[in-house]
Write the structure tokens for this entry.
Amino acid sequence: MSVTAVVGANWGDEGKGKMTDVLAAQSKYVVRYQGGSNAGHTIINQFGKFALHLLPSGVFHPGVVNVIGPGVALNAGDFARELDGLLARGVPEPVLRVSERAQIVLPIHKLFDELEEERLQERKFGSTKAGIAPFYADKYLKLGVQVADLFDPERLKERMETNLAAKNVLLRELYGKAEIGADVVSDWLGELAALAERLRPFVCDTTELLHEAVRKDELILVEGQLGALRDPDHGIYPFSTSSSTLAGFAAVGAGIPPYAIKNVVAVAKAYSSCVGAGPFVTEIAETDGANELRRRGGDAGEYGATTGRPRSVGWFDAVATKYGCVVQGATEVALTNLDVLGYLEEIPICTAYRIDGEATGKFPVTASLERAEPVYETMPGWKTDISGARSYGELPEKARSYVERLEMLIEAPIRWISVGPRREQLIARW
Ligand code: GDP
């Protein structure tokens, strides 16, 4: 089986980083295919605790080739900082390859992200202000800059000037700001020239590299950022991200044949968490114990790995997760953070939504989702610390019943159960 995708079935932060880090041990390649440095994967291993934002999660395995594919929003400064940060903490120099076709997040993108959130005020979409939406907008407007352009100063200057001609009109007319002049452009070009030299040793034709790997039947992991419900086509638009978070997009964003993706591991949390704006049906009110679940969640509470923002928390949403698994094309599910629920007497599970008085198991469009109310059933809690369990049989019966009930509701096989943030805290059911 040459390509396995590790992707989110929910809103992101499902624990994909941990799953990728574990599965990377048997892989030859780990590939990022979309998104940028606007979210993060948390990984805990022998070197310490890390929040990776842009680098693929295979960087801790010396034998793995880590690839940044053409679909990624590459912030070259963040790339260099993240790499330096790993080396400074004693991680051996990872093998990294960056697609010559990946596009660069420019200073103008970050600036426009901030201006747009400021303009939208209350109607904003909860951007992390890393420039990702303006980056993808420019990419599809054909105003972007490819990695290869960094090594051609004339072409780069021309691309930047074409881009800024349109941006300056917006700056002046829409945002009421000063235009960006030639002196600023020249500073930006200087910074990009320095970053180009940092990137140079890693840049290659990653599509050729990965096609060759597929031909040789080498094991490739593609890792998605965020989750199915943030997908621009299938998620909670407009509270979505700007690139596809689906396993299907990996064929495009990584540059591999679509038929090579044999395994899709959809990662779901044993409860829900959601950072950023948008409808979140099973959200627990602060007065109903959200604080307690948030404090116990993840490895150090539910706070965004990149932004530090507190995540909203909720009960397991079987409607959203079943839909997330369907659009991901999940062949198996990894259920993470099961250990976190060990303090509860009873655990609610959302089995349906009630919209305008009607119960439905179907995940609706955003306009209806905003009116949806959760329909819950309740399972007994196991009231035990399960973080030391290493086989399915070692889990208390009530924990197994919870897992099996979720499996029935989401109609996808739960193969992996994660009972803690560390690599070894993982149960494989087969
Ligand atoms: P990702 O973006 O999907 O990689 O998820 P994040 O890393 O942002 O969030 C997952 C959080 O859960 C991190 O703090 C992980 O260390 C933590 N984590 C992952 N799996 C488990 C688990 O099974 N139990 C607990 N308690 N924490 C986990």
Remarks:
- DSSP finds twelve helices and 20 strands in the chain.
- The CA atoms of residues 55 and 83 lie 8 Å apart.
